[in-house]
Specification:
It is a single chain. The chain contains twelve helices and twelve strands. The chain has about 350 residues and is α/β, with parallel strands linked by helices. The chain is elongated, with a radius of gyration of 23 Å. The chain starts with 14 loop residues before the first helix and ends in a 5-residue tail after the last strand.
Length: about 350
């Protein structure tokens, strides 16, 4: 008689089992798991149905085998935002201190490029990925996080279970920006944002809008959001139109220094005094905002703490932590005289 050890665990479901159940190749399942470019919706549905049916999870052992390169991928949405340099430098220093080299990729504000770069980082057996301001959705991040440890910055999704996040408390930051303008005596305080289109609630601009609206309600102000075209487009004409509005607000909270600095510059070039004619406060406290000729009040996100915290969390993930963490960094007002 054959005796079976009742304490022996059942064989783990493998990627091959998923392929057989879905009636596709192992390579096809791998492509779906990596969200590779060119995967058809019908193939994705087949594989995802089998994954859910079989309760398949990528092997932790396989991840451990991959985690011997002592390299981490850092994916940045773009390099045009000077605020990001401080985040990357701080993260890189913390990673080096933990014995890891970082390889930096640039997403160029395109989700297709971001996904292909994450796949390349996985294929090159990197131990983890730090992503700054991703354009890709939380659902896509979840797929990748089941294959490699991931920490994201500037992506608000506190319910995510497979990856970690570190953010400036963007709602709080917008709130205290309006408070700062209110404390100066302004009551006509608008927000200069941009057309969000179909942006998910994870993006920082939406969080900042929520903070602005909350502050306006709390301080009993009339809320007013003026929108520029999407971030990737030329906003020069729309900024001029804002400055030329006959009912231009007395004070404005600009969603980011990316737009606040040009607005300050354009206002002064047109003889509009800042803050005497138009009070302005931005968000990011970028190095450009601190230049005396700019002198922009702005919300400081503490980029050094953002980068260091994210790197430490990623190292913790690589070392085996599997419980998600989501942290908010407290912002503050950097005052220079534009309010």
């Amino acid at each position: 008689m054959d005796f079976q050890d009742v304490n022996k665990p059942k064989d783990r479901i493998t990627i091959r089992d998923v392929a057989v159940d879905a009636g596709v190749s192992v390579a096809a399942v791998s492509k779906v798991l990596r969200n590779a470019y060119g995967v058809s919706e019908s193939l994705r549905q087949k594989v995802e149905t089998s994954i859910e049916k079989l309760n398949y999870r990528p092997s932790v052992a396989a991840r451990a085998m991959r985690g011997q390169t002592s390299t981490v991928g850092v994916l940045v949405i773009e390099l045009s935002n000077p605020f990001l340099a401080g985040v990357v430098e701080s993260a890189n220093a913390a990673l080096l201190g933990g014995g890891y080299k970082s390889m930096i990729g640039i997403g160029h504000s395109a989700s297709s490029i971001e996904t292909s770069m994450i796949e390349s980082m996985i294929d090159n057996r990197m131990d983890g990925v730090l992503i700054i301001a991703p354009r890709i959705s939380g659902k896509v991040l979840d797929r990748y996080a089941r294959q490699i440890p991931i920490v994201v910055i500037a992506h608000h999704e506190s319910e995510a279970q497979t990856y970690d996040s570190v953010n400036s408390d963007d709602r709080r930051g917008a709130f205290i920006a309006v408070e700062a303008a209110f404390a100066k005596g302004y009551r006509d305080i608008a927000m200069l944002g941009y057309e969000l289109m179909d942006s998910p609630p994870t993006v920082v601009a939406i969080q900042r809008e929520r903070g602005y609206l909350e502050a306006a309600r709390r301080l009993e102000l009339q809320d007013r959001i003026i929108r520029l075209p999407p971030v990737s487009s030329d906003r020069h004409a729309e900024m001029e139109a804002f400055l030329n509005m006959p009912d231009r607000p007395r004070a404005v909270f600009v969603w980011s220094d990316l737009d606040a600095v040009p607005v300050v510059n354009m206002a002064r070039m047109r003889g509009i005094r800042v803050p005497e004619d138009l009070a302005i406060i931005g968000y990011d406290n970028s190095p450009v905002a601190a230049i005396p000729l700019v002198g922009l009040d702005s919300i400081d996100q503490n980029p050094a703490e953002l980068g260091r915290t994210a790197a430490e969390m990623l190292l913790s993930r690589i070392n085996g932590r599997n419980v998600a963490e989501h942290r908010l960094i407290e912002p503050r007002v950097a005052t220079r005289g534009s309010l």
